[in-house]
Amino acid sequence: EKGGWSSFMAKEISEQPDAVANTIRARIGDDGLVHVPELDGLDELFRGVSRVVIVACGTASYAGMVGKYAIEAWTRLPVEVALSHEFRYSDPVVDASTLVVSISQSGETMDTLMAVKYAAERGAKTLSICNTQGATIPRESDAVVYTHAGPEVAVASTKAFVAQVTALYLLGLHIANVRGSLTSEQITENAAELQAIPEKIGEVLAQHDEVAQLAHWMSDTRSVLFLGRNVGYPISLEGALKLKELAYIHAEGFAAGELKHGPIALIEPGQPVFVVVPSPRGSQTMHAKVVSNIQEIRARGARVIAIAEEGDVAVLPYADTVVRVPLAAPLFEPLLCVIPTQIFAMELASAKGLDVDQPRNLAKSVTVE
Ligand code: M6R
């Protein structure tokens, strides 16, 4: 069933435009407004909640972190992201005014299931984002928004991640519509941006060979760092996780602003560092700060691979390699910036002769706590 692909992971990476498009389908109306039919009947709940807690593990938790920025921006509800296992055993503050959103590709992750059950016992309303019809977590939840990524076989999550992030955007816009925290015009603008993403992912995928070549050149690398800020921060964590899982090398993601609070001590000549550069169209200040981070690490000999939007020339004097992503509204950039990190990890693992679909010690779905 791999078709002509060398691995399920390669196939699933290539399916990401469809994963996003299928998750959007039937949830943006002809009027351009977002309406998720599965959430019908929950208007009163969305108007009444005072906070949102997202629970998830691994890659799904990074999708949750991206979702936090978008949901807070659009609904002005405070959103917290908790690892399911940390949430469950930390006596968390949850009550009837808390909406607990779980995210799980498999819908069977025991840590997340236990967090959902616990939240329900405490009186919270539970909503799950899940890729597997009829799985345990959606069955235990008050409501479910399915992602339509299609079956994900490779242990390392790729297309499920972009579908989860898409579902969170839809959830945020749906709640904003119900609460009136965005105007109809703002909702239709954001919805149109989201609808344009699948084609843009296709443009990033077209750079597969350049990223693969980079990975092959770097196949004896022993450590890779990732920096990102704001919505780029969870992408730095996700890029690092992929590399650990697939290529078994040390990789760490940092919030770029943390650099001078410690991680910069790790920079020595030749250290590869991926930097997810935020769009200057979002915040010029943030962009300038990340460019200055790049200068700082470059001055210490880092080998900088920048993931930056087309036309961002500020990175050119300092980056050894620039991977371009098409222009998108800044909140949606994670759906584009994550792609090169997935390809890089897969290709580096392949260059080392490793099995990218079945990395050692890992299971596709973790059904024990
Ligand atoms: O099925 P789930 O989404 O609940 O799985 C959560 C994590 O175990 C999963 O995302 C894991 O981190 C992946 N192997 C990442 O590639």
Can you describe what's shown?
It catalyses: D-fructose 6-phosphate + L-glutamine = D-glucosamine 6-phosphate + L-glutamate. This is Glutamine--fructose-6-phosphate aminotransferase [isomerizing]. Homodimer. The chain is of the alpha/beta class. The chain is built from 14 helices and ten strands. The protein has helices spanning 8-14, 16-24, 43-48, 58-75, 84-88, 110-121, 136-139, 159-179, 184-195, 197-205, 208-217, 232-247, 284-299, 334-351; strands spanning 51-56, 79-83, 98-104, 125-130, 143-146, 223-228, 250-255, 272-276, 303-309, 321-325. Strands 2-1-3-4-5 form a five-stranded parallel β-sheet, with helices on both faces. Helix 4 runs parallel beside helix 8, helix 4 packs antiparallel against helix 12 and helix 8 packs antiparallel against helix 9. Bound molecules: 5-amino-5-deoxy-1-O-phosphono-D-mannitol.
Secondary structure topology:
Elements: H1 8-14, H2 16-24, H3 43-48, E1 51-56, H4 58-75, E2 79-83, H5 84-88, E3 98-104, H6 110-121, E4 125-130, H7 136-139, E5 143-146, H8 159-179, H9 184-195, H10 197-205, H11 208-217, E6 223-228, H12 232-247, E7 250-255, E8 272-276, H13 284-299, E9 303-309, E10 321-325, H14 334-351
Parallel strand pairs: 1-2, 1-3, 3-4, 4-5, 6-7, 6-8, 8-9, 9-10
The structure holds 5-amino-5-deoxy-1-O-phosphono-D-mannitol.
Attribute tags:
Glutamine--fructose-6-phosphate aminotransferase [isomerizing]; repeat; 44% helix; five-stranded parallel beta sheet; 369 residues; 14 helices; aminotransferase; single chain; EC 2.6.1.16; alpha/beta; binds 5-amino-5-deoxy-1-O-phosphono-D-mannitol; globular; glutamine amidotransferase
